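Obj: model holo form, ligand = iron/sulfur cluster.
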Amino acid sequence: MGAAVPFAFQDNAEVARRFPDLHPAFDSNEALTEANRCLNCFDAPCAAACPTHIDVPRFIKKIGTQNLMGSALTILDANILGASCSRVCPVDVLCEGACVMLRYNKQPIAIGRLQRHAMDHFWERGAHLPKKSSRRRSQKIVCIGAGPASLACAAELAQQGFSVTVIERHALPGGLNTYGVAEYKLRPPDSLREVAMIAELGVEFRFGVSIEHQSDLAALESEYDAIFVGVGLGAMHELHIPGAHHNVNVAVYVVDALEFIARYKTSGNLTVGNNVVVVGAGNTAIDAAVAARRLGAAHVTIVYRRTESGMPAFGFEYEHAKQEGVVFEWLAEPVAIHADPASGRIVSLECARGGSNFHLSCDMLIPAIGQAPLRSLLERSRGPKYYTGGDCANGGREVVDAVADGKRAGVAIAKSFEAADA
Amino acid sequence: MPDLSTTFAGGIRCPNPFWLASAPPTNCGEQVMRAFDAGWGGAVWKTIGEPITNVSSRYSSVDWNGQRMMGLNNIELISDRPIETNLREIAEVKKCYPKHAVIASLMVESTRDAWHDIVQRSEDAGADGLELNFGCPHGMSERGMGSAVGQVPEYTEMITGWVKEKARTPVLVKLTPNITDIRQIARAAKRAGADGLSAINTINSITGIDLDTLEPRPNVDGLSSHGGYCGPAVKPIALNMVHQLQNDEASRLPISGIGGIGTWRDAAEFILLGCGTVQVCTAVMHYGYRVIEDMTDGLQNWMREKGFARIEDFRGLSAPKVTDWNHLNLNFKIVARIHEEKCIGCELCYIACWDGAHQCIHLDHAHSTPPAIEAASRARISVTPIPRLDRGVQAEAPLARVPRVDEDECVGCNLCALVCPVESCITMERVENHLPRETWEDLVNGTPHS
Ligand SMILES: Cc1cc2nc3c(=O)[nH]c(=O)nc-3n(C[C@H](O)[C@H](O)[C@H](O)COP(=O)(O)O)c2cc1C
Ligand code: SF4
Ligand code: SF4
Ligand code: SF4
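Output (holo structure tokens):
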């Protein structure tokens, strides 16, 4: 057994103050009342809509009988990251969006908040993840990347008795759950606490290890019986316009969305401009824009080349951004960044709309125009030992999709060794 | 405006048939006067007798699905106030409210003298009638009173007889349901000359056990005792007993209906089965005397819609419609029909029919079993719909989850319609089979109707 990994993290009081929970926790009475509202549908559409197929009515009815431990174990049985998913899932387009109550002119059941209620209880009780088998399996598996997909794969295999190692190039595990999710949904300590439970299953973690070259993979192939690639997506695309390159003078003021989010969440660096412009209108762009507002920016503008109806962000994220005071400029294409020649600080973003150009005051520019896939690594990881899942395989979906992928891979890997061990 | 005033059991007049049952809401004169001001038509005084000592705590309840007090349980005894105080306050109330019914509920030691004495004093105080509490299931029965009397026909007949020797006002006997056949006691009361019955008193109960302390409720220093159950949960039991009494010639007397009455609708049901007045306790303990406003208002509006001018116009109208099972038409056939446009796809009807009825609601044409349906859903891969990646992907049509009834196999049990959460989404429809009415009795006697 690997020792429980104490993922050291210094909580930042200022961040906590600026990012209170978007959806506060239920108290017991609220949870009970909400749980009792659930119809307990057969072959429930909410469960079918969940990528990990959590048995939603089952865990909700257990809250109704005050069997909170049973409820949490029901969740964890389907989704080992049930706690973070309860906070970060876009439930409006998943379980809650499928709830039959919506066809009844009623509010859908607050499945996400009920799930959080059960998982909070699990943590408060100091419970441990269950093993699925007491059998010791001889094979060793390595998971590349410590994001949700790898964690789910690793947990499934460890629960079945395999030796599992997770290698990660960052200093902390959790992937986007730790570095990339808006703080008012999930805080790094909560993400890390969840990973620590997986570590307790005996999963070994190695940090600061990058897998880049063919030789790195060859070394893994010789040491391990199976390799799960859960590396997520690559770096964010850069803005290719004059002035956008991260030269020394503008490095602090042109920062991609993921970097900006990771910075305030995990490094204690809460730097933000006063006039912030975010380029792109996906969910990450929204997270960055709202964070800029929360960190103190007076004006935050999202610049997007299409109209409202073409924006890739979920509708509820868009509504949230407007409530936070984020302003949207549609059909606007950035063409140049202008800096003050003396100080090197950027002062405005020039955009084109129709035939004419306009300038937006801007002292911090946050490009959020998507991430490139990690093609080279994926192309090299071919062969019977390789499995993959999560963003790097599905093109970039949600945490819950990565968990579903990782778990399926774990189940498949375990099955592949069934004959050898029989 | 329909007239709610009524006269009960040969002489008890009241402005409406809604009485407060003998219980904490009728503990003292000040309360009863406020209740009359709120609109109550009568009050049965908290049972009078030699003062007792109560315990604390005294009540516990059963909550259901977020609703408080679906059932209420108590281990309280009769009045803890001196007989003289109660009688003096009855006199005061009667002086101020001569048109309202004040009934003295009585329970004393089982001797002729004790009963003669309390009857005389109650009537002297001005009570419009007497209610003999032979029903209290706890505490008093251990002392040879309450249900100890009400469970033995001979005692009931004897004591009722003593009371009738003395009484000038109508005498009501309050019946306990904690007996195999409530008619046994009613018949005894009727033989002894009782003028009416009050039914039912509370039902023996233990409401629950605290799973942390393992102690039952209500908790009296770590122990509890069986109590009397009342409130909405007991209404169906009370209705049935009322009907049993109405349907039995040897029991039939005017009935003051009691048990789970909380609204005018409940009251109308008791009256439709034959009750002349109704009594209320739990609803008032829960919400206060003010519940009377909608009780009278709602009953009057309903009477007006139905064309009933007074209580007697509808009293007992439903009683003949409850019959013995062997008089029911075996050739009456109904089947379930699902109205697709209302269905929300919860599939509760499906699982209810498969696991609890006759396996004739289907989700597909293959008639898959519930485990097969669940396995197929678990095996389906679902992903979060991402606008960027999934443009143009259609969600499953809602109709895909609408179940279908195999009407040839449906036995018309009603279960699916009962579990469906959407109003009138499943209706039970008559199937014309052109068969004559035929009952079990006809079959046994070999005399089919033509
Ligand atoms: C539709 C139905 C049919 C029943 N048939 C029987 C029966 O055949 N034999 C029996 O002993 N009890 C029968 N019962 C009574 C139940 O066994 C049980 O005593 C009763 O329902 C009380 O339990 P509950 O409150 O959990 O429903 C039946 C109950 C229901 C609802
Ligand atoms: S669809 Fe809604 S009501 Fe039905 S089981 Fe799921 S949460 Fe409950
Ligand atoms: S009425 Fe009964 S038998 Fe018919 S479909 Fe409904 S549940 Fe099934
Ligand atoms: S119970 Fe009613 S709403 Fe639910 S699936 Fe059946 S018919 Fe539709």
